[in-house]
Amino acid sequence: MALVDSFGRTIRYLRVSVTDRCNLNCDYCRSAGQVLLPNNHRLLSLEEIARLVRIFTELGVERIRLTGGEPLLRKNILSLIKEIGSLPHLTELSLSTNALLLARYAHAMKQAGVSRVNISLDTLDPARFATLTRGGDLAGVLSGISAAVEAGLHPVKVNMVVMKGINDQEIPEMVSFARQHGLVLRFIETMPIGEAGREMEDRFVPAEEILTQIQARFASDLIPVHQPRGSGPARYYRIAGTEAEVGIISARSRHFCDTCNRMRLTSTGKLVLCLGREDRMDLRTAIKGGADDDQLKDQIRAAVDLKPERHQFDQEESHGKTHAMSALGG
Ligand code: SAM
């Protein structure tokens, strides 16, 4: 069984947002004026999420990532992780997090079936971190990263959104940090997603510029990794003599839509067909209305048929038109 879209791409990866709520408030993710309306009454229940994920795996999805908002804020998240972690066709269950709650959850998550985590960290400077996240505490993230490493959530990936004049001067320091802790560090281009993403257009740094900065400082230590990790869109380099790697995700300057293998499910049951487009299919109405597994599978197949060929980040008029990243989960 496989989900193949109308451009011949096989969908093997589903990212599932379990909440829009977050314990940080990053300025490029949520705009200052964005009001987060309580949507508890519209959320999929944990049972509904687990059911949909099972159905997706029966249709050929092999990898699941839980995200948010901050996924560890969702009540009883460990029971959802256990449920998903025990699905027979799954090859990987991972989680995107800001790490603030990882010191508390990392071991239990590992035992419940999470194989690895992606941690968002844009700066190693406490004051800059507080500004970017509108009040966050960097120390909590750093202990979360240590907890993830100790718990064996390997490889621990750290994602840095690179922003001109904000944190781009920290690229070499972040590489040294990754080297020191044996992390996989990924530099990410800003994306014009949601209102906040659109407002951040002047912060864009193209991947090639990021690479030039890294090479200027670490050239002799970088070994290109020809077999990219997982099936993700990053270009990777191993740092000689260490387990650390750096990767660059160039969603805009060198898009990778032709190998896109993923879809996203929001916490309110919308199946998002492309991160950079508005196209989506409502699964909530069907699941709340008593649809059986076959009906849900038909709806999912119909959605896959509608998956667009590529995002439209290069078309300015489409910027900011999508939902906020805090609802899409990255
Ligand atoms: N709370 C979790 C976390 O911090 O990883 C998961 C949700 S967060 C929305 C997922 C990722 O989206 C983060 O790595 C964040 O940096 C990234 N992100 C948010 N807005 C973005 C934007 N406009 N451009 C690029 N990445 C963005």
Query: What is the CATH architecture descriptor?
Result: Alpha-Beta Barrel
Which small-molecule ligands are present, each listed once?
Answer: S-adenosylmethionine
Q: Give the strand order of the largest sheet, numbering strands 1, 2, ... along the chain.
A: 9-10-11-8-7-6-5-4-3-12-13-14
Low-confidence stretches: none
Domain unit count: 1
Helix content: 25-40%
**Fourth-tier CATH superfamily name:** Aldolase class I
Strand percentage, roughly?
15-25%
Q: Looking at CATH, which topology would you report? A: TIM Barrel
Order of helices and strands: EEEHEHEHEHHEHEHHEEEEEEHHH
**Most strands sheet:** 12 strands, mixed
Class by helix and strand content?
Answer: alpha/beta
* Overall CATH class: Alpha Beta
Q: N- to C-terminal separation? A: 27 Å
Radius of gyration: 19 Å
General shape? globular
User: Taking all residues together, what is the mean pLDDT?
Assistant: 92
Overview of the molecule:
The chain is of the alpha/beta class and 330 residues long. It has a single domain (9-328), classed as Alpha-Beta Barrel (TIM Barrel), CATH 3.20.20.70. Helices cover 32% and strands 18% of the residues. The strands form two sheets. A twelve-stranded mixed β-sheet has the order 9-10-11-8-7-6-5-4-3-12-13-14. Strand 10 and strand 11 form a beta hairpin. Helix 1 (46-58) packs parallel to helix 2 (77-85), helix 2 (77-85) runs parallel beside helix 3 and helix 3 (102-112) packs parallel to helix 5 (138-150). It starts with a strand and ends with a helix. The mean pLDDT is 92. The chain binds S-adenosylmethionine (SAM).
